[in-house]
């Protein structure tokens, strides 16, 4: 299929729409998690990944609870806190707190152990856990965390991740770029992909959006291939969107 300048009704037929209610769901009491892609006990052959995007988990962790120490290797792991304070510890010696406005990335590489706990005793922690396949295997494990100004995403797309250490946001071992935007009702913006052959996965954090002619609601996801440009319009006040540009080849 030839690349198009924007998503239309015709091209969207070639792409993937994940409505929020179709995601996998797990409730462990202390943890409630929604899985866009196959994860743990949720296994769906049609939802193994979108390009190098392997995991998109929407997690809620109860007060004082969390994930004990557990291992990872050869994966780029990104955490995006949405509410509350998440305490992180790892085998590289890092102990830190991440909260809304912070972005955390880890290159698991040859292997790491880490734990994550809700630091608060009086509120939930809500965060996204995202796994990206790396473009290099067996790298030295590394940790990256930044705090961004939330005002810089009002009616524009704020970059939160890239392949370049000198760019805004965190960086990972992959030709990927993440942006978050928070828009007023009826505000429109466009996003031009940075690398030919990449795709883009849009995830609605809050409110309602239209991408091309496709209406999306809170926690819906849309994976788009074979386009150079997408156009997004907010259909509600304080609508918030995460755009993940990623390679389509593993």
UniProtKB/TrEMBL annotation:
Q: Which domain of life is it from?
A: Bacteria
Q: Which GO terms describe its molecular function?
A: metal ion binding
Keyword Transport (UniProt): no
Q: Which UniProt keywords apply?
A: Iron, Metal-binding
Q: Boundaries of each Quercetin 2,3-dioxygenase C-terminal cupin domain copy?
A: 160-246
Q: Where is the Pirin N-terminal domain?
A: 22-132
Species name for this entry?
Flavobacterium xueshanense
Q: Where, by residue number, does Fe cation bind?
A: 70, 72, 114, 116
InterPro entries for the chain? Pirin, Pirin_N_dom, Quercetinase_C, RmlC-like_jellyroll, RmlC_Cupin_sf
Protein name, please?
Pirin family protein
Which PANTHER family does the UniProt record give? QUERCETIN 2,3-DIOXYGENASE
Stretches that traverse the bilayer: none
A Pfam family matched in the record:
Pirin
Family designation:
Belongs to the pirin family.
Cofactor notes:
Binds 1 Fe cation per subunit.
Q: Which cofactor does it need?
A: Fe cation
């Amino acid at each position: 299929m030839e690349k198009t300048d924007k998503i239309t009704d015709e091209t969207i037929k070639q792409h993937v729409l994940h409505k929020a209610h179709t995601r996998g769901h797990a409730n462990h009491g202390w943890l409630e998690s929604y899985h866009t892609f196959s994860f743990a006990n949720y296994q769906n052959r049609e939802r193994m990944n979108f390009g190098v995007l392997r995991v998109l988990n929407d997690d809620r962790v109860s007060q004082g609870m969390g994930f004990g120490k557990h291992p990872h290797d050869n994966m780029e792991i990104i955490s995006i806190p949405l509410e509350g304070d998440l305490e992180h510890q790892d085998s590289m010696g890092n102990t830190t707190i991440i909260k809304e406005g912070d972005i955390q990335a880890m290159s698991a590489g040859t292997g790491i152990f880490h734990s994550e706990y809700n630091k608060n005793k009086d509120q939930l922690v809500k965060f996204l856990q995202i796994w990206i396949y790396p473009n290099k295997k067996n790298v030295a494990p590394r940790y990256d965390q930044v705090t961004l100004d939330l005002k810089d995403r009002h009616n524009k797309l704020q970059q939160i991740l890239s392949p370049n250490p000198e760019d805004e946001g965190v960086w990972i071992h992959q030709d990927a770029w993440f942006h978050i935007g928070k828009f007023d009702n009826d505000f429109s913006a466009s996003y031009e992909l940075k690398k030919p052959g990449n795709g883009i996965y849009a995830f609605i954090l809050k409110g309602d959006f239209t991408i091309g002619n496709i209406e999306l609601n809170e926690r819906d996801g849309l994976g788009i291939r074979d386009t150079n440009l997408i156009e997004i319009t907010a259909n509600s006040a304080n609508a918030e969107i995460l755009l993940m540009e990623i390679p389509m080849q593993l």
